[in-house]
């Protein structure tokens, strides 16, 4: 049994005590916390609390935690490269092949499961912390991804990201040698027509198409391939891959999107894209306001070796702009 203490934040003022506790103990359902409060295990400002009590700003809530979490992510013993970590957030360099969080047929072994194991090793109580992934990368896209370690950071990061208060760019190896140095692609993206496919399309017949905007700049040329930087102004599913393929320069190694919007093959099933082949797309740069410190922080990583191997390039190259 452990005794935990929390101070009520302003944005949670007026909520029921079980709802308040579920924000801090995100691996517990409100139902389980409601049961513990009903058993007389909680106090508000040193007074016994009942399940129907509400809490208000700056009150002190104490809970005797006598039950295990009931919605704990199954922790994974694996690891990912950590770029930055503090008490509130963690930034990782996700490898290709790792799903960001449980979805569809991928319920275990995801990045969230790996981070749960990492957080469990940092706390005296298993499941006391729960990783909050606030944005995602495609399974076979590598690169920078930030997750929150506690509820307030998760809330503030989510709000900032929804409001576009971040900067991010990608590196991609594309097939071909564009005649331009920089190009703005503004083509709506929707679901690929026909069936219930996870694939997307920039063709006029795409279903539920929404505006999409990508800036693509050539960094270096390698004959049959080119290294480009991609900056997103919108966040459509598969946006970079669809836009580059549509204008005739698909991402190297892309299992599905071919030049000028052609589809190489249909996915095997609906849901998370089931590819086992990585494509040459890497989230190389990520900047955002720290959710607690409210200072701008920025991170950058280089694409890994398997990114370059897709074009038979054995070593990373510099980001200097070179034409060849």
Describe this structure in words.
- There is one protein chain.
- The protein has 324 residues and is an alpha+beta fold.
- It folds into three domains: 2-65, Structural Genomics Hypothetical 15.5 Kd Protein In mrcA-pckA Intergenic Region, Chain A (Roll); 82-165, Pseudouridine synthase (2-Layer Sandwich), CATH 3.30.2350; 167-309, Pseudouridine synthase (2-Layer Sandwich), CATH 3.30.2350.
- 16% of the residues lie in helices and 28% in strands.
- The strands form three sheets. Strands 5, 6, 7, 8, 9, 10, 14, 15, 16 and 17 form a ten-stranded mixed β-sheet that branches. Strands 1-4-2-3 form a four-stranded antiparallel β-sheet.
- Strand 16 (281-289) and strand 17 (296-300) form a beta hairpin.
- Helix 1 crosses helix 2 (30-38).
- The longest helix has 12 residues, at 151-162.
- The radius of gyration is 23 Å and the shape is elongated.
- The model is unreliable at 319-324 (pLDDT under 50).
């Amino acid at each position: 049994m452990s005794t935990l203490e929390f101070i009520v934040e302003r944005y949670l003022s007026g909520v029921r005590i079980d709802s308040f506790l579920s924000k801090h103990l995100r691996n517990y359902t409100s139902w389980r916390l409601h049961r513990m409060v009903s058993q007389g295990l909680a106090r508000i400002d040193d007074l016994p609390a009942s399940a129907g009590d509400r809490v208000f700003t700056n009150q002190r809530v104490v809970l005797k935690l006598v039950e295990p979490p009931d919605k704990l992510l199954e922790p994974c013993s694996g690891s990912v490269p950590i770029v930055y970590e503090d008490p509130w957030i963690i930034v990782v360099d996700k490898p290709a092949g790792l799903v960001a969080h449980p979805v569809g047929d991928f319920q275990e072994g995801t990045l969230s499961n790996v981070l749960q194991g990492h957080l469990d090793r940092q706390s005296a109580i298993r499941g006391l912390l729960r990783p909050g992934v606030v944005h995602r990368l495609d399974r076979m896209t590598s690169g920078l991804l930030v997750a929150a370690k506690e509820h307030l950071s998760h809330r503030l990061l989510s709000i900032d990201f929804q409001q576009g208060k971040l900067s991010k760019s990608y590196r991609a190896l594309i097939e071909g040698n564009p005649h331009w140095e920089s190009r703005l692609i503004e083509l709506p993206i929707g679901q690929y027509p026909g069936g219930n496919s996870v694939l997307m399309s920039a063709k006029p017949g795409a279903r539920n198409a929404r505006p999409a905007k990508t800036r693509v700049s050539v960094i270096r040329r390698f004959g049959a391939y080119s290294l480009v930087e991609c900056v997103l102004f919108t966040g459509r599913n598969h946006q970079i891959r669809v836009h580059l393929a549509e204008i005739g320069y698909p991402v190297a190694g892309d299992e599905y999107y071919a030049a000028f919007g052609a589809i190489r093959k249909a996915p095997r099933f609906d849901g998370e894209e089931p590819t086992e082949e990585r494509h040459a797309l890497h989230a190389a740069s990520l900047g955002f306001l720290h959710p607690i410190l409210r200072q701008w922080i920025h991170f950058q990583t280089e694409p890994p070796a398997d990114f370059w191997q897709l074009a038979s390039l054995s070593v990373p190259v510099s980001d200097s702009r070179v034409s060849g």
